[in-house]
Amino acid sequence: MRKKIIFSFLATSLVLFFTACDEEKKYATVDFEDISLDSTQVHKTSAFTSGAITFANAYTADWDYYEGFAASAKTDMETAGFTNDLSVYATSAASGKQFAVIYKDNASCSFDSNTEYIIRDIKLNNNTYAYLSMKNGDLYSKKFVTNDWFKITIFGHNKLDVKLDSIDFYLADFRDGKAYICDKWTTVNLEKLGLINKLSFSFSSTDNGEWGMNTPAYACIDDITYILPE
What are the counts of helices (DSSP H) followed by strands (DSSP E) for the chain? Predict the structure, then answer.
């Protein structure tokens, strides 16, 4: 009986200790609410900084074309096609009204002043263009069927720009009896990446053609929460 009491006391003490440690951590969240949007509810013409993170953007005015990150508050879940590439497939941002859209491989964002942090988590969702393309098919992409998938890979870089680790998140998964296309903001833990200065993103899919991936290479992100130094 005495051993059981001691064991129970130690177990309870450990739970209280780790709970206290977690509560002592301080966090900051980048939520994109501080970005000024234009009259169409987007910002896609240049790089921008939200909180302590700068989001890269390469914009070509002649074609009104960007690669990297755009900020948006658009939530049109009905209009199919590339003209609706800056809407999230949701009725709102994960929090507030604004979020960011990632387009194309190697989009990257980094903390200011070459600092490094542990990112606790990030919220991800499909944008409407990609979601409806996978659900119904379109002129350029197939309707997803059994064994198809679409994923985003998130890489963590240290301040020397060395890739440390990566995490995959499936934006659609039709393997093993599933028929899943992400349609809500989903929290993805990134602590595995360790102390990092930069995130970069890449896309891959089972729908590929002569010129590369056919699935629209988009995803939406919001609420990047990182741990502040003690």
Answer: 2, 18
How far apart are alpha carbons 65 and 70 in whole angstroms?
11
- Cα distance between residue 54 and residue 48, in whole Å: 6
Nearest to 177 by CA among 150, 145, 137, 151: 145
Each residue's pLDDT tens digit, 34-85: 999 999 999 999 999 999 999 999 999 999 999 999 999 999 999 999 999 9
What element of type H or E holds 39? Answer: none
What is the per-residue pLDDT for 114? 86
CATH number for the 26-227 domain, one of 3.40.630.30, 2.60.120.1350, 3.40.50.300, 3.40.50.1000? Answer: 2.60.120.1350
On whether the CB atoms of residues 161 and 202 are closer than 8 A, the answer is no
Q: Which of 192, 189, 195 is nearest to 166 (CA)?
A: 192
- What token pair was written down for 40? 């169409």
In one letter, which amino acid is 83? T
For residues 215 and 129, give the distance between their C-alpha atoms in angstroms, rounded to a whole number: 10
From residue 61, give the alpha-carbon distance in Å to each of 65, 66, 104, 169, 196. 7, 9, 18, 32, 33
136: nearest Cα among 85, 79, 92, 211: 79
- Position of tokens 């390469």? 58
Q: CA-CA distance, 201 to 104, in Å (whole number)?
A: 8
Q: Measured between alpha carbons, how far is 73 from 227 in angstroms, rounded to an integer?
A: 26
Q: What distance lies between CA 190 and its chain's CA centroid?
A: 10
